[in-house]
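quick one before i forget lol
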Amino acid sequence: MSRAESTLLRRLAIRLPIIQAPMAGISTPAMAAAVSRAGGLGSLGVGATDAQAAWRMIEETRRLHAGPLNVNVFCHAPADADAGLESRWIDRFRPQFAAFDAAPPKRLREIYRSFVDDPAMLSMLLEAKPSVVSFHFGLPSVDVVRALREAGVILLATATNLDEARAIVTAGVDAIIAQGWEAGGHRGVFDPEAHDDCLGTMALTRLLVRRFDLPVIAAGGIMDGAGIAAMLSLGAAAVQMGTAFVSCNESAADAGYRAALGSDAAHHTTMTSAISGRPARCLRNRFAEFGETVDAPDIPAYPVAYDLGKALHTAARAKGEYGFGAQWAGQGAPFARWMQAERLVAELEAEMTAADS
């Protein structure tokens, strides 16, 4: 075990270098508790909910297991309303809604409040004091970082390139999550309008390990113990795994999502902004294919576009069609396993040990 790994594990109070990705809408208190009980770090994604609901999720997790817990928040820039663009986006989808005997929303809403503009969420976290808080899509203000640190909370943040990692170091965050291009779900880019170098997990992890003194957590395409061991050998202090847990019993993924993950679709993931308004890797379903026909400037901002995406998925699912869901998955999706989360962590530990022997 490297010094960076042992230091991070000690600080996080976990036995294994395995962090379950937060996955808002997919992770559950049962999943987070199971992972932490097995020796990893369980996580809750609360970026898609409000402070009161997030508090209930934390309390439910603690009722199931009193171990360490990571709570993840979204730090995107609040959306700028563009009525014309949003109206055109609604009109573009009228045929899809009509095919399912439904009508699109009359207008689109900013359905998620960013943590950078959510004092209620900050107050809740300062009261609940989860052992870890992680940031995605950017960073909150210096004052917010200071307040969480003074409350004894360990802070993690996602970087997809060197500049983002440098900002994380400057902000005083405790560890960097190196999210590679392979990763499922939303890219953690600070600025979705900026050029993306599309760095893979291996290259990004090595770049950050060699450039910065903070512990680096590798994320993207890691599905088994051999992958964990490989990332640790590159200098990562731990790994973060999301797609590997989507198929677990405790996941909130619906039947269509699970079926798609177990099909040939797992071999064909793609990056699209059409579902939510931000680039995210998903199974190449009907929504993702539609996204290939539109240009980024035609898509409303995140999470405004997501309002329509969720409405379309609801309408389609009511008719038995799951291909318009946000079926987030990384490039390692073909290696998904169906089992309880605690058993998966045990298997990952055994595979990691075998890879090291």
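fyi The radius of gyration is 19 Å.
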